[in-house]
Amino acid sequence: xxxxxxxxxxxxxxxxxxxxxxxxxxxxxxxxxxxxxxxxxxxxxxxxxxxxxxxxxxxxxxxxxxxxxxxxxxxxxxxxxxxxxxxxxxxxxxxxxxxxxxxxxxxxxxxxxxxxxxxxxxxxxxxxxxxxxxxxxxxxxxxxxxxxxxxxxxxxxxxxxxxxxxxxxxxxxxxxxxxxxxxxxxxxxxxxxxxxxxxxxxxxxxxxxxxxxxxxxxxxxxxxxxxxxxxxxxxxxxxxxxxxxxxxxxxxxxxxxxxxxxxxxxxxxxxxxxxxxxxxxxxxxxxxxxxxxxxxxxxxxxxxxxxxxxxxxxxxxxxxxxxxxxxxxxxxxxxxxxxxxxxxxxxxxxxxxxxxxxxxxxxxxxxxxxxxxxxxxxxxxxxxxxxxxxxxxxxxxxxxxxxxxxxxxxxxxxxxxxxxxxxxxxxxxxxxxxxxxxxxxxxxxxxxxxxxxxxxxxxxxxxxxxxxxxxxxxxxxxxxxxxxxxxxxxxxxxxxxxxxxxxxxxxxxxxxxxxxxxxxxxxxxxxxxxxxxxxxxxxxxxxxxxxxxxxxxxxxxxxxxxxxxxxxxxxxxxxxxxxxxxxxxxxxxxxxxxxxxxxxxxxxxxxxxxxxxxxxxxxxxxxxxxxxx
Length: 629
Fold this sequence. Notes:
With 629 residues, the chain is mainly β. Strands 1, 2, 3, 4, 6, 9 and 11 form a seven-stranded mixed beta sheet that branches. 29% of the residues are buried. It holds the Pfam family CHU_C.
């Protein structure tokens, strides 16, 4: 019997000082958290019931401690700062261990729940700077004496050790490094308080100085997750058209801590503020009808009495039921108006950064024109529709936004060159109906009347700043006026007083561009001249007499006489022939006059002779001809 007791005692004692370890399941909210203050500089002194070490406001020496975020000022072999890698940062408990191992910290922890598993944890750091080389030597291995700390959890009467554990050696480092240690324990029925004790179990001497921060007690329980028929998920997304609906939730526990589980389902609208769902205390929970986004989670406890608070239980991660919001219609960047001769710019809409846009050719359904872009380049005028979407969003899309591209047409302009008669008026026509007009004269009519040559312009406007310009070049037409008419043999040439393009006629009906008329019979004619626009017709009556240019009196029947053709059309006429010296060779009435190149019956020598033709009502006409032998 005695042997059994000893063996039992040794086994129990060994279990009490088993290896440290963290909670492998879920953790509840801290019921105790000592962070030693988040301010700067030295903190407040701990009570005498907590430590027997002496409080100082500088780097502590053996058997002393301080509360501070500033170290390594007096003791230069220490690190000169505390890294901000703990939970709270800020100040920490700095302990210069006594030469004699012993307890340096004792704290009563209240507010625990009975029959519940807890995790105790704390951050520790060896504050000795190995790079200082102060503690180097054969008798100081590993860069100074390492820290070793024992944690013990006692019942509130300080008569029963619930759990304990020793840290491994915490050796010095070249830069400050925090390490977190933990152990788990379980309270007994009716037990709501424990006592935490920390002991220095390292050797005295150079080193073995440490910092402690974030001493935390929290509930430790099974790792719980929420599952649905689809498996374990953190959230589901539901289209608005599928609401309202009910969902079956299941609590999945790894059973790593609790020997039995009690459940309490909770609900939250924001994922932070939770409330118990009355009567939802089973492993499975069928939700009420869900109409809007909501969060669910399940609390687990090993004892039903511990479900009432967050410090005595653990909770699963939040399971979100997200009712997807249909993307709002894109915000239009504005309708676009361009001229026909301009490149069509992009149509634009704006959507939130997590959305994109598809473009269609109709308000509903229709043909997909562009995908995944807030910008669309149309090739023709029309109304285009932008639809917002989110990647992976398979719900019915929201309303589309209409964006219009209007291409204002422009007429096919052709400039005109016109002519105006002196003193006349002409009408200039824009030539295209259904537009607005802006003339260089200031008129806004479709046409204008002008009476002077020059360059005129009209802007044919389809929209503000969208127009085409037509140019009219109006030239003055020179007056048509006959300066004279000349007969050259059988030909007649009409001469113009001014240069230009004219038409000529001898009968006022048939006009030609050439001023020379060929093979015209002799007689009295009227010469006509007009310009290209028929502004004015000028006339001149003239006598056309066909005068031979030579005679050859040889009785062959050809050109034997100087005789005029057409002189018979005139009431009276007289012809005179002179030699080169002005001596009269022959004379007589024109109608019956003919000369054979003789004088007093004798042949005159070959050569040039001159004639003078006088016709009543016309200027005398003179010229020369040749006598050939």
